Amino acid sequence: MYQVGNLVKELSEKHGRKRDSLMPILQGIVERHNYLTDEAMVEVAKELDISAAEVYGTASFYTFLDTSVRGKYVIRVCKTITCSMKGKADILQTIEDVLKIKVGETTSDKMFSLIETNCIGWCHKAPAILINEIPYTELTVEKVVEIIKDYMHK
Amino acid sequence: MESNKGLTKVDLIFEKVDAREALTKAFKMTNDEIIQQILESGLKGRGGAGFPTGLKWKYTAAEKEPVKYIVCNADEGEPGTFKDREILDRVAYKVYGGMAIAGKAINAKEGIVYLRGEYRFLLPKLMKELETFHKMIGEIGFDFRIKYCLGSGAYICGEESALFESIQGERGEPRNKPPYPTTSGVYGKPTSINNVETLVTAMMIIQHGAKRYTQLGTKDSRGSKVFSVSGDTPTPGIFELELGMSVQNFVTEFGDGDTKAVQVGGASGFCVPRKKFNETIIGFEGVPTGGSMKLFNSSRSMYNVLHNYLDFFAEESCGQCTPCRVGCQQLLKGVEKVKKGEAKSTYLNELTKLADTMKIASKCGLGQSVGNAFKSIVENFREEIIY
Q1: Domains of chain B
Q2: Which chain A residues touch B80 with a CB distance below 8 Å?
Q3: Could you tell me the residue range of the domain that residue A103 belongs to?
Q4: Which of B308, B316, B320 is most worth mutating to test chain A (most A CB atoms within 10 A of its CB)?
Q5: Whether the Cβ atoms of residue B72 and residue B194 lie closer than 8 Å to each other
Q6: ipTM of this predicted complex?
Q7: Residues A128, A96 share a domain
Q8: Do A85 and A140 reside in the same domain of the chain?
Q9: CATH number at residue A101
Q10: CB-based contact A85 B300, cutoff 8 Å
Q11: Mapping DSSP to helix (H, G, I), strand (E, B) and coil, where does residue B194 land?
Q12: Structure pTM?
């Protein structure tokens, strides 16, 4: 749970209070707090003077606007064909082992979430993952362990 | 059909140009002169659909509305495509330049780049370059401003009308057409929406002249194209090639010696099997592509390839229209059943009919093109789907 009122106000000041301000506001909340709580969406609805259903309807359409609990670092493993051909299964298994969670889950300390995603545009450097917005490419099992460990110590 | 032209590397998109000089030249041209150059060049949209760019600009220019928009489609989501990221990363000033030229041609003062959320890491750099660009065009005399909108992980937003909805803060659900974007695009205003690469190409055409551009390519596919090459190849990456080569030319250059199929145009494109490499031209006269070229060698199961694509579409279908929402899921379940032996192999014929129905009845390009990969894989690799 996070306090969101001030952030929503701050983002509305920056992006405006029109309908087309909705996406950047929701993206701003996710950037700061990793996901959208019901409270956050209600707060946005009030600020933009639209119904909360409109906010949820929009948010739930977009996979990067998560409406369920996400950790500080969201790991998205590309599962589309080239990554899948070039060792995605091993990468995923390794991350699961290191973090001791399964795909779709979040670590109990709320530091990491692990999900699969569709093509992220790094097929020539497969397999690839995103950690928040940062891409990591040409991964090997060793490399991904190192990357995750670095994040653990951040 | 013209005979294939072999494989020739070209350096147009990433070529360094003096942007100030190029834009000063464009600024002195009339709207009609710009549009005429683009029409003469034969340039077709580089996002995959291939609509003639000059016509798009001409139609939008003809609209009387005072407010119009240039939208740059940088929602590159087609599996196997990564050229637009590279173009933005290396020559963003040329993308902006293309937008400013397009803006002048259609009389629009605002440009919007819709960048996919997956490329958000590029944004700080792109914004910095945009600032420099704004300053430069201001000095030349352009009355044109560009802003960014970010996507949030939805393949469908690459469809132009879904992209407009997303810019407007709505669910990215495609609209009914007509009206087309040239009359009613983003915010209901006349809009020319062009792919990243199209805009850069347009700037280069203005720079070098349409004549030089038409010397490249074939009658139906003018010019060159940036290809995103991946899969079973010793040299994956981005290559700008002249259009008009055969798949065989391509495989000779990029294959690993054991290529059994090439998926041209991504998940929504066509699978070309080895026996058709020679006769298939890459371009609008053969297999069109937004640039995605995936090579598969004989160690790959084409069932896995097809399953991966169908899984992709089942997730990315926006769910608005029934043929696509249900069709994607049923195709996926259907091939799984056939593979497991729970349905007879003839069930694939039923699924093919379903894919045909989706092509006719789906509202947008997503549902309409699911059948491309499905049919070309099932037709050419039927035994791999069944056994």
Answers
A1: 19-213 (3.40.50.11540), 302-385 (1.20.1440.230)
A2: 81-82, 119, 123
A3: 73-152
A4: B308
A5: yes
A6: 0.97
A7: yes
A8: yes
A9: 3.40.30.10
A10: yes
A11: strand
A12: 0.97
A148 and A77 in one domain? Answer: yes
Token pair recorded at residue B212: 């030089």
Residue B349's CB is within 10 A of a number of other CB atoms, namely: 11
HSE of A128 in the Cβ direction (CA atoms, 13 Å)?
Answer: 24
Query: Which tokens is A49 given?
Result: 């003077």
- By Cβ distance, the residue of A23, A79, A82 closest to B80 is A82
| Contact assignment for B168 to A81 by CB distance below 8 Å | no
Domain boundary among A59, A85, A100: A59
Residue written as tokens 């020679």? B278
Q: In what order do the strands lie in the sheet with A134-136?
A: A112-117, A73-78, A129-131, A134-136
Size of chain B in residues: 387
Q: How far is CA B304 from CA A103, B11, B210, B368, B382, in A?
A: 20, 36, 44, 22, 13
**Cβ atoms B78, B197 nearer than 8 A:** no
Whose tokens are 């080239």? That residue is A82
- Site of tokens 């173009």: B87
Question: Which chain B positions have a beta carbon within 8 Å of A21's beta carbon?
Answer: 169
How far is Cα of residue B78 from the mean position of the Cα atoms in its chain?
A: 8
Does A68 reside within a domain? Answer: no
A37 with A84, same domain?
no
Closest-CA residue to A24 (of A65, A54, A56): A65
Is the distance from CB of B250 to CB of B262 less than 8 angstroms? Answer: yes
How many domains does one find in chain A? 2
Task: Say whether both A41 and A102 belong to one domain.
Answer: no
Per-residue pLDDT of chain B (387 residues; tens, 9 = 90+): 445 678 889 999 999 999 999 999 999 999 999 999 999 999 999 988 889 999 999 999 999 999 999 999 999 999 999 999 999 999 999 999 999 999 999 999 999 999 999 999 999 999 999 999 999 999 999 999 999 999 999 999 999 999 999 999 999 999 999 999 999 999 999 999 999 999 999 999 999 999 999 999 998 899 999 999 999 999 999 999 999 999 999 999 999 999 999 999 999 999 999 999 999 999 988 898 889 999 999 999 999 999 999 999 999 999 999 999 999 999 999 999 999 999 999 999 999 999 999 999 999 999 999 999 999 999 999 999 999
Structural contact between residues A52 and A20, judged by C-beta atoms closer than 8 angstroms: no
Main-chain dihedrals φ then ψ at residue B179, nearest 5 degrees: -75, 150
